DNA sequence: CCGGTTGGATGGCGTTACCATCCATCCGAG
DNA sequence: CTCGGATGGATGGTAACGCCATCCAACCGG
């Protein structure tokens, strides 16, 4: 198909598609002549993935580019892709040379050790959590292990469920998409349900 | 204290503080002369709140401004503040006049009804969830109620715990901060733990 | 043959969250 | 009393981001 059809079917403008190609998110079509290239279903599929990661996952184009690079490299295993995704998602907070920060980060590391979780030391989620600890303490709401228990339980159960759902006997493309969907899109599902549940709980506690 | 001390103690530049005052996030100091104003601990506290909402919650300044306006209005009840916060957080997705979208939105509404949740019909989280449904279907990963069950359970338990933790016998300021902290900051805590738990599950399933 | 499409390149735009400057005023140490 | 430095208030600039608009030469297809 031509780029205009790709544009129609994906719902993205031709300009945007060109932009994604320039940024390395989408491979070029196969050149048929100097002014014509042929695109196929894989391009459409790829655009749908990009769109989902941007629209729902709210990922920056640069992060998607990194993820795509791993997706397209067949030597990258599933767990490695997982790491790439987590790292690309960020957030990449500065780690100030500050005692409060170091204490919070140490608390996070201790928690991970205690739970026996196999998590890379450079995982951005560690920093995100530590960052939250610092902010909570600065606001006078110090966080305790008791506070965290329900979160840990919820996170564990959901994550187990998600990883169980990733089929690894399908073609690589399918498996990889499945993994990305589990991590990026279902994170939003969890967030949305969390917010809805909060509103319900708030209504029952404070509602008129 | 003067603005320079406020700047030092909050870690924000004088320019940024001026900017927040202009945007209505921070009340002016009480004018002592034409070129001097006095700030107090409440200003500092407010800056810490703003900083947490931006840094951790990643909220746009405009959203914080709306939240602050509710916080400062004593006639706004806690549940109402909750609604304001949810609405300010967004995301405000367009709702295309599209059968897929309408079907997804109807699925969400049915789910909320079935769970008996008291949630406003205009809650952005409904749209966020519906949006996710659409994207998942477009990618060929249709979502089922079975998939959702663990998420609903996790969200419910965490939300219950959070709302239980909001003390409503403290001064309004404290209670209100507590509510905001529960909704905005603990959402990030949940997300971070979710990611860590996923990495652990991935390591055990796919790791070398 | 000619209107319309494409690849490829380049420049512009709208938003967001500030930062930098400037000016007139003012404070306060000496 | 004076002068360096801080302040309030206003205005303009900036950097990143994710596109969109335009242009050109080449090309296709009716």
TrEMBL record, chains A, B:
InterPro entries: DNA-bd_dom_put_sf, MerR-type_HTH_dom, MerR_fam
Keyword field: DNA-binding
Domain HTH merR-type: 1-70
Protein name: MerR family transcriptional regulator
């Amino acid at each position: 198909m031509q780029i205009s059809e790709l544009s129609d079917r994906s719902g993205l403008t031709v300009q945007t598609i060109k932009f994604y190609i320039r940024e390395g998110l989408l491979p070029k079509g196969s050149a048929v002549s100097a002014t014509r290239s042929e695109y196929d279903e894989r391009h459409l599929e790829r655009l749908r993935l990009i769109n989902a990661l941007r629209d729902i996952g709210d990922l920056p184009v640069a992060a998607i580019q990194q993820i795509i690079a791993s997706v397209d490299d067949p030597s990258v295993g599933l767990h490695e892709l997982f790491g790439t995704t987590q790292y690309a998602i960020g957030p990449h907070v500065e780690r100030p040379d500050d005692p409060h920060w170091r204490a919070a980060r140490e608390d996070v590391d201790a928690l991970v050790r205690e739970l026996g979780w196999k998590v890379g030391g450079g995982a951005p989620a560690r920093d995100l959590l530590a960052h939250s600890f610092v902010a909570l303490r600065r606001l006078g709401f110090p966080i305790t292990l008791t506070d965290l228990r329900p979160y840990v339980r919820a996170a564990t159960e959901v994550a187990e469920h998600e990883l169980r759902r990733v089929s690894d006997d399908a073609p690589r493309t399918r498996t990889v998409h499945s993994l990305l969907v589990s991590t990026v899109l279902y994170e939003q599902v969890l967030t949305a349900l969390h917010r809805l549940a909060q509103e319900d709980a708030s209504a029952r506690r404070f509602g008129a």
